């Protein structure tokens, strides 16, 4: 099949690499620098398998990166993967969707020979596919040539290609059977698991399904964090054991029960907010999701309180934050809990050093200010530090171990916001505390 991907972001690049295993992919973006970079096989995103996959497919001509000024040619499927960021007033900003749809429809004779399907993949409020795409296609009397589908993505940063190649399900919100079948065939030819379920529903159900999936996963995390608060007040209770027992029920599963610093990233916070806003505009209250946000927003303060309890006044003291990326395996810092921790610690007068193996000071420049330093040199960050909070569970911290990690600190206090060392023996002169288990007076809880 000939597949045009519109938007060379995280999702667009990942889908291009996946589809190029069986289809002829054209990747369109308005950013000249990005297209130039991709043309020489370089990837603008850090993601396992993507760099090699992109390089190979571009070299073999299976992915053709293009700008809007280039000729594109006939396509079987056009997949819109542009961003839908949150605008300053909390609304979902749909300007990139609108402009991508306008571009496609204004060039439909160039892109569509007899029949093609336009797929919206970006996360959008329910009703967007109909109001932005279906209605326009009808108005332009293109219904007999253009099929329409809303097809959400469920990729996690850090394992995007693996998730894309082996999804739990493919949700296809199609306007008719022909659109559904074309998109299903496109996936069947690239997916590893031949028994992947294809779920057929309306575009509106598919749009809401994406919001609901992310909201539910985020709610699981906040639920676990709430139970962790209770476990801390119960001698001998341990949150990991509690949630292991809860998750062993096949109706629940233990995934996304990891308690600690809370969730961040470009998806959960934005999508929950998007759904809450969507519902409240219709006078529907969402107390569960409001509570999910509230529980999450309290996590950084909780970790700071744990630190202050042990180290006392932080004024003028060097404090280290381990990890800035919102999760390991990426240099993405959007909505990272570390940024909130940084604000809280600076307000208390601390001199904050942030260690991250991938994030550079350039990625984070607008957050850096007096008394805030970022470095990839772990020893430099830990030396003479009065206390440390582990926020992102980069594997390197576990590999180095508690003893070596805290060796150069002037006071060996480590607050573990991801329970990385929760099951390990704590060296005698290290004060270690994590969430979800009652703290002892000294040493490990
Ligand atoms: C999330 C979803 O997992 C994907 O299915 C979805 O496609 C994607 O959003 C999206 O909408 O594009 P992502 O944001 O990349 O993916 O990352 P996750 O692995 O879901 O982690 C999100 C946050 O939750 C991270 O800050 C992580 O540290 C935190 N988390 C995750 C926990 O605090 N505890 C857990 O048990 C799991």
What does this structure look like?
The model has no long low-confidence stretch (mean pLDDT 95). By secondary structure, the protein is of the alpha/beta class. An eight-stranded mixed beta sheet has the order 3-2-1-4-5-6-7-8, sandwiched between helices. The chain has a six-stranded parallel beta sheet with strand order 11-10-9-12-13-14. The chain has 16 helices and 14 strands. Helix 9 packs across helix 11 (268-280) and helix 9 (203-231) packs across helix 12 (287-297). It is 40% helix and 14% strand. Helix 6 links the parallel strand 5 and strand 6 (146-150). Uridine-5'-diphosphate-glucuronic acid (UGA) binds next to helix 9.
In short:
It is built from 16 helices and 14 strands. It has 445 residues and is an alpha/beta fold.
Q: How are the SSEs ordered, and which strands pair?
A:
Elements (H helix, E strand, L loop, with lengths): L1 E5 L3 H10 L4 E5 L3 H8 L10 H10 L3 E4 L10 E4 L14 H12 L1 H4 L4 E5 L7 H12 L6 E5 L9 H6 L4 E5 L2 H12 L9 E4 L1 H29 L7 H9 L20 H13 L6 H11 L1 H13 L6 E5 L14 H11 L3 E5 L16 E4 L2 H5 L4 E4 L4 H12 L6 E4 L14 E4 L11
Parallel strand pairs: 1-2, 1-4, 2-3, 4-5, 5-6, 7-8, 9-10, 9-12, 10-11, 12-13, 13-14
Antiparallel strand pairs: 6-7
Helix pairs in contact: 1-3, 9-11, 9-12, 13-14
């Amino acid at each position: 099949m000939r597949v045009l991907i519109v938007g060379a972001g995280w999702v667009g690049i990942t889908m291009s690499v996946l589809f190029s295993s069986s289809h002829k992919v054209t990747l369109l973006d308005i950013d000249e620098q990005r297209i130039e970079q991709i043309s020489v096989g370089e990837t603008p995103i850090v993601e396992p398998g993507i760099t090699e996959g992109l390089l190979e497919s571009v070299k073999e001509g299976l992915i053709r990166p293009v700008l809007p000024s280039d000729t594109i040619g006939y396509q079987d499927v056009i997949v819109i993967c542009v961003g839908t960021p949150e605008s300053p007033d909390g609304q979902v900003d749909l300007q990139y969707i609108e402009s991508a749809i306008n571009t496609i429809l204004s060039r439909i004779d160039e892109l569509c020979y007899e029949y093609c399907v336009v797929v919206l993949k970006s996360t959008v409020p329910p009703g967007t596919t109909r109001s932005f795409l279906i209605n326009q296609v009808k108005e332009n009397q293109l219904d007999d040539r253009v099929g329409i589908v809303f097809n959400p993505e469920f990729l996690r940063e850090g394992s995007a290609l693996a998730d894309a190649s082996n999804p739990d399900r493919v949700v296809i919100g199609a306007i008719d059977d022909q659109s559904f079948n074309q998109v299903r065939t496109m996936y069947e030819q690239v997916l590893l698991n031949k028994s992947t379920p294809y779920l057929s529903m309306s575009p509106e159900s598919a749009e809401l399904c994406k919001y609901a999936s992310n909201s539910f996963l985020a709610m699981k995390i906040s639920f676990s964090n709430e139970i962790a608060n209770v476990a801390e007040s119960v001698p001998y209770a341990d949150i990991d054991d509690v949630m292991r027992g809860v998750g062993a029920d096949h109706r629940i599963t233990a995934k996304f029960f990891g308690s600690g610093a809370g969730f961040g990233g470009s998806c959960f916070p934005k999508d929950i907010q998007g759904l809450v806003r969507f519902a409240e505009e219709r006078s529907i209250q969402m107390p569960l999701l409001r509570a999910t946000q509230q529980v999450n927003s309290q996590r950084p303060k909780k970790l700071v309180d744990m630190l202050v309890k042990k180290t006392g006044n932080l004024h003028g003291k060097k404090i280290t934050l381990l990890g800035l990326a919102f999760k390991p395996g990426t240099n993405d810092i959007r909505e990272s809990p570390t940024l909130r921790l940084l604000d809280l610690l600076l307000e208390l007068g601390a001199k904050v050093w942030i260690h991250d193996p991938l994030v550079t000071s350039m990625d984070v420049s607008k957050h850096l200010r007096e008394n805030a330093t970022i470095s990839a040199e772990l020893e430099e960050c830990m030396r003479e530090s009065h206390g440390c909070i582990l926020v992102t569970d980069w594997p390197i911290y576990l590999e180095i171990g508690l003893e070596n990690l805290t060796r150069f600190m002037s006071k060996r206090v480590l607050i573990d916001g991801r329970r990385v060392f929760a099951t390990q023996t704590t060296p005698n002169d290290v004060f270690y505390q994590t969430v979800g288990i009652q703290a002892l007076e000294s040493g490990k809880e």
